[in-house]
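Hypothesis: this fold can be encoded by more than one sequence.
Test: take the structure tokens below, design a sequence, compare later.
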């Protein structure tokens, strides 16, 4: 758990324990506390460690405490300036961030304002726009022609006439059912949620959700649609994104409006979160008072409509690698971007 250093003069040597740590990229150290330890022992080792790191010119001190070592948190945050040899008002370590299984504490050694990065500043979410221009649903099979033959001294053309007349009537009924007019843009996948701010409002909205840690935006959009509606889909492009602040526990919010292509049409809604889901005529969705009331939603509607009409191009993911060697995606307008073949 701790290395040993020796100090003192004359015949006596004082053995001090220094916590094991690894260097970060910015002149600091990271301590992973894994073994059980009493708070008093921890404070003693931590004090010796800070003195040692100060002589080495270290700056930021990060301490990662697993949830099993929660007994050490109070000792770290209450360590005093008298012990640390500081004159500033800031005493002890402070919280930086927490995850389900650990808490990260941080401390700044120099007698100057710290330059440590803040905790995560944004939450990332997606909205999924799926348009069904073929109006396919499991409950509504394709039109099938029925031939009716009359043999009561009628001409052969009677069968053809009846068949064409039947198809004409059926197509008219199908169009009326779907609200299919000259400005028809197909049906859009919408949901009503059981929870959240829109619960009980009657609003039909696009499927939305949060991007998980380490998850790509396009993958999150496909996953959320599948989870909420049972619809299989493939990602097409990012149409637009919105940034807002003070959204989720004072964090900022990035919301990506994504277009996806449906690969299935039979809806199986998620019982836990979704009250209802359906394919709704796009004009009916856009005409909802709530959509018309807010400028942001009207902008989103206009962008989606322009995309359907072939008058708008969004951003498609291009796999790439940077200096970190980790796979990443550059989102760009492929219709205007220089052509380059990815090596991934």
């Amino acid at each position: 758990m701790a290395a040993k250093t020796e100090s003192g003069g004359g015949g006596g040597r004082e053995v001090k324990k220094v916590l094991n740590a690894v260097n970060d990229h910015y002149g600091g150290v990271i301590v992973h506390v894994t073994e059980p330890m009493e708070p008093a022992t921890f404070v003693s080792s931590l004090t010796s460690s800070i003195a040692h790191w100060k002589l080495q010119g270290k700056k930021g001190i990060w301490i990662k405490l697993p949830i099993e070592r929660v007994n050490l948190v109070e000792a770290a945050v209450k360590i005093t300036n008298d012990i640390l040899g500081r004159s500033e008002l800031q005493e002890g370590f402070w919280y930086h961030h927490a995850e389900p299984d650990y808490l990260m504490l941080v401390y700044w050694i120099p007698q100057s304002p710290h330059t440590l990065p803040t905790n995560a500043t944004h939450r990332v979410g997606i909205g999924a726009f799926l348009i069904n221009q073929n109006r396919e649903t499991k409950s509504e099979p394709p039109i099938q022609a029925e031939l009716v033959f009359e043999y009561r001294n009628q001409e052969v053309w009677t069968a053809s006439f009846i068949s064409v007349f039947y198809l004409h009537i059926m197509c008219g009924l199908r169009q009326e059912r779907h609200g299919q007019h000259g400005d028809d843009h197909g049906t859009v996948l919408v949901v009503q949620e059981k929870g959240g701010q829109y619960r009980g409002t009657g609003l039909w909205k696009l499927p939305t959700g949060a991007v998980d840690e380490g998850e790509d935006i396009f993958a999150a959009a496909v996953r959320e649609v599948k989870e909420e509606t049972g619809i299989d889909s493939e990602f097409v492009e990012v149409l637009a994104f919105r940034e807002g602040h003070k959204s989720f526990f004072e964090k900022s919010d990035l919301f990506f409006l994504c277009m996806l292509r449906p690969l299935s049409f039979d809806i199986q809604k998620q019982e836990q979160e979704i009250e209802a889901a359906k394919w709704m005529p796009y004009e009916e969705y856009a005409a909802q008072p709530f959509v018309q009331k807010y400028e942001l939603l009207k902008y989103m509607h206009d962008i989606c409509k322009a995309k359907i009409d072939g008058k708008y191009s969004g951003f498609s993911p291009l796999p790439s690698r940077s200096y970190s060697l980790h796979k990443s995606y550059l989102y760009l307008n492929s219709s205007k971007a220089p052509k380059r073949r990815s090596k991934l």
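The CA atoms of residues 189 and 279 lie 5 Å apart. The first strand starts at residue 2 and ends at 7.
Hypothesis status: open.
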